[in-house]
Amino acid sequence: MKSEFVAEYFTGTATRIEGVGLAQIAEETVQRHRDAFGSAPIYRNALDVGGDYQFRLRGEDHAWTAATVAALQTCGARQFL
C-alpha cells in the first residue's frame, strides 16, 4: 500500500514498498460490488472467487483441482491446531 495510505489508516506501521492507494482500493471495491450485484449473467448465481489457491468452477484448467485444494486447506489448518 502507498505510504500515505499506511500513514493515514495504519498509524505507526512501517512500510518499505509502495503499492495501491485509497483510490485503487475504492475502484476495486466498486468493481467487485458491480460484479456481485450487477447484471452480468455469469455472476447471477455466484461471486468471483477472488483467490489464487482455490478451485475455480469458471476458471481455466490448471493443476488446482477440488481434491488438491481440499488437501492444501487441510494441511494448512493442521499447522494451526
Structural write-up:
The protein is mainly alpha-helical. 44% of the residues lie in helices and 0% in strands. It is built from three helices and no strands. It has helices at 3-9, 22-37, 66-78.
Radius of gyration: 17 Å
Major β-sheet annotation: none
> Uncertain regions: pLDDT < 50 for 5+ in a row?
none
Element-level helix/strand string? HHH
What's the pLDDT, averaged over the residues?
Answer: 78
- Binned strand content: under 5%
Shape descriptor reads flat
What is the number of helices? 3
Helix fraction? 40-55%
- What separation lies between the terminal Cα atoms? 31 Å
Classification by helices and strands: mainly alpha
Write the layout of secondary structure elements.
Layout lengths: L2 H7 L12 H16 L28 H13 L3
